[in-house]
Amino acid sequence: MYKHILLAIDFSANTENIVARAVKMVSQHSAKLSLVHILDNIPMPDTSYGTIISLGDESDNSLLEQEKTKLNVLGEKLSVPENQRWLIWGTPKDEITTLAAQEGVDLIVIGSHARHGLALLLGSTASGVLHHAPCDLLAVRLPQE
Ligand code: AMP
User: What is the pLDDT of residues 125-136, one digit of tens each?
Assistant: First the structure.
């Protein structure tokens, strides 16, 4: 039985498929559910790095607010407590695996696209997480976008 499931969401077109699968696993295992969204395209609010734009900038703030809102809407819908909704700056594969270890997660649920060509060479978040995960991983196959 899994006790703590971490659902990694990027809010792309097929998010619903992954959410549905995670919800099913949560109910089958009577597990706790946590949500994580990694901010990999919004500047960090840390001005010690010269190239990173401060969140004081209005457009960046609104981007962050949008991401927060999306995560909170999903969290409310799935009855996930606020302290189990994670919004983290960084690289998805690194931050997802680090959070899983830190929070004692025993199953990560993630989407996986069929890839070919250059995308295959560049790798995917799912394969990156698989190589570093401290626990089991459920890679939900997503249809081609
Ligand atoms: P990708 O390899 O980028 O197509 O992403 C595959 C899956 O990795 C997505 O369906 C999500 O489950 C997860 N993922 C990718 N990017 C993020 C992100 N920024 N935050 C959380 N999960 C992500």
Answer: 998 999 999 999
